[in-house]
# Entry
Amino acid sequence: MEASGVTILTEAKVQSVEAAPVGAKVQVEVGGKVESFEAEKVLVAVGRRTDTEALGLDKVGIAHDRGRITVNDKMETNVPNIYAIGDCLGKVMLAHVASAQGEVAAENALGETAVYDGKTNPSCVYTDPEFAGVGLTEEKAKEEGIPYQVGKFPLMANGKALIMNGGEGMIKFIIGKEYGEVLGVHILGPRATDLIGECALAIGMEATVDEIYATIHAHPTVTEAVREAALAATKRAIHIPNK
Ligand SMILES: Cc1cc2nc3c(=O)[nH]c(=O)nc-3n(C[C@H](O)[C@H](O)[C@H](O)COP(=O)(O)OP(=O)(O)OC[C@H]3O[C@@H](n4cnc5c(N)ncnc54)[C@H](O)[C@@H]3O)c2cc1C
# Structure
């Protein structure tokens, strides 16, 4: 976005938005200084919150934290036979998470034993290029004191990505230092939100990085870059220098 002339201000506090001839005049405080600029359009995306007031949680005695319903990994609330899933838990507010939790709740309600485990849950951003990530970030691995190593593969070195978007983006693998288990994968590039499925499976199966690169990936596809990033994590990449 910066390459196409977009200025990005983070940690900026919007102070006012007023109508202006071009569209809107916006005042923003950044690092103690107030900046003002005009924009044709303003997109407001301030987040979401649970909407459980009308449910009468307290009347039924369902435990919650300021409206966010408390459940265990079987999606059971503290009240027998009442389950909760999805956005009303106020945690990961995504459609595929609500759906996975719904299946767990339904199975348990029917007498099966199912548990929800969010470790294979991908986060996807449908921008251009797309972003998708699953598992640990480097920051999280550091925070948890997990010894790790990283492999990065630029999509500039992948033929299919070059055709699809000029090779913009990269794939990053985070693997355990001792055993090479896949801890996290983060992808910026074309089809990132599709590519992440293989990486989520690897995390779910506790696969090691050599199991990813022992798998043959079709040519010409962007999936080859997933394998190359896995190779890069052990300094065995083929289409880039290994540093
Ligand atoms: C603009 C937008 C874009 C999004 N894009 C994505 C995306 O790209 N990918 C993604 O994974 N997620 C996305 N999400 C999030 C996703 O939509 C939610 O996480 C998901 O729908 C949550 O499912 P849910 O079943 O918990 O809640 P909901 O889908 O909100 O379903 C709750 C249902 O309960 C009904 N209801 C509420 N109160 C009562 C009541 N008292 N009695 C009976 N019925 C009631 C509501 O009408 C609603 O139909 C997006 C959300 C928004 C707002």
